[in-house]
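Q: I'm building a small set of examples for a reading group on sequence design. Run inverse folding on the following structure and report the sequence directly after it, with nothing in between.
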């Protein structure tokens, strides 16, 4: 075999191997593939609420160790995801859709972390080219359709023109907004979103104000999703000022002209065990 043919075969083999590996990520499905029966505003979230109160503290940190060790509550989480599969989005109210899909995003994320726990970060499970990506390969069935975490966030929730969803959906990281230890409910969704938005900007990891330079240092979330809060940076600042309680930072944001810097995002797992260290 001459060197040219041998080189061509090596290139062909490597190309085929790459294509096989690139498509070999194993999709994971949760819930059940059935037709929806229940309007989203009528879905029962009480089991999810109970588990949040049991395993999530006031700062949104999760006791993954205890949750992973509880077969009963792992089964309860699976049953809750099965219940979400019975939701019927068509004709549901906006409040019902918001509460349903925020809870769904958070519950599927917790399920995904429990599947790979112990781990130190969700980013350990977000392969870009080859392998499993929790945001793209973990699917929840709802009304017979599969929804990844990415599609829930970008194709459903962001399309609802409610920027506060970014203070409610939690990607299992310290840099995320806190995971509320109550389920979101249609009757209380507006108040819950407001509470978590205010809480978000009360935390130094998300907002710091440098009075000497009148500079706002903000979570990178506001950089990644600026367009959801306004057409430009000034509009974004004027929008978020309603959730800022620090008077000087609020005034700077309300002006729409304050310099902005974006804080580093902490991708470490929102794990009570690591926080206690």
């Amino acid at each position: 075999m001459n060197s040219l043919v041998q080189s061509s075969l090596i290139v062909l083999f490597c190309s085929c191997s790459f294509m096989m590996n690139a498509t070999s990520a194993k999709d994971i499905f949760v819930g059940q593939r059935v037709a929806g029966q229940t309007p989203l505003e009528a879905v029962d979230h009480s089991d999810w609420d109970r588990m949040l109160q049991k395993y999530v503290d006031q700062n949104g940190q999760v006791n993954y160790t205890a949750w992973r060790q509880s077969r009963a509550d792992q089964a309860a989480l699976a049953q809750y995801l099965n219940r979400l599969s019975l939701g019927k989005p068509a004709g549901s109210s906006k409040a019902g859709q918001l509460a349903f899909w925020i809870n769904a995003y958070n519950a599927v994320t917790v399920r995904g972390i429990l599947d790979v726990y112990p781990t130190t970060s969700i980013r350990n499970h977000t392969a870009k080219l080859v392998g499993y990506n929790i945001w793209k390969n973990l699917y929840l069935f709802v009304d017979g359709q599969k929804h990844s975490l990415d599609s829930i966030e970008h194709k459903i929730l962001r399309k609802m023109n409610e920027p506060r969803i970014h203070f409610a959906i939690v990607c299992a990281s310290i840099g995320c907004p806190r995971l509320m230890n109550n389920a979101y409910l249609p009757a209380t969704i507006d108040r819950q979103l407001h509470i978590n938005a205010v809480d978000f900007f009360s935390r130094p990891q998300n907002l710091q104000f440098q009075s000497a330079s009148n500079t706002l240092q903000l979570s990178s979330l506001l950089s990644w999703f600026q367009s959801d809060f306004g057409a430009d940076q000034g509009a974004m600042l004027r929008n978020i000022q309603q959730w800022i309680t620090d008077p000087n930072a609020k005034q700077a944001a309300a002006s729409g002209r304050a310099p902005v810097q974006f804080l580093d995002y902490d991708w470490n797992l929102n794990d009570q065990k690591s926080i206690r260290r």
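The beta strands are 28-30, 38-39, 87-88, 138-142, 145-148, 207-210, 215-218, 260-262.
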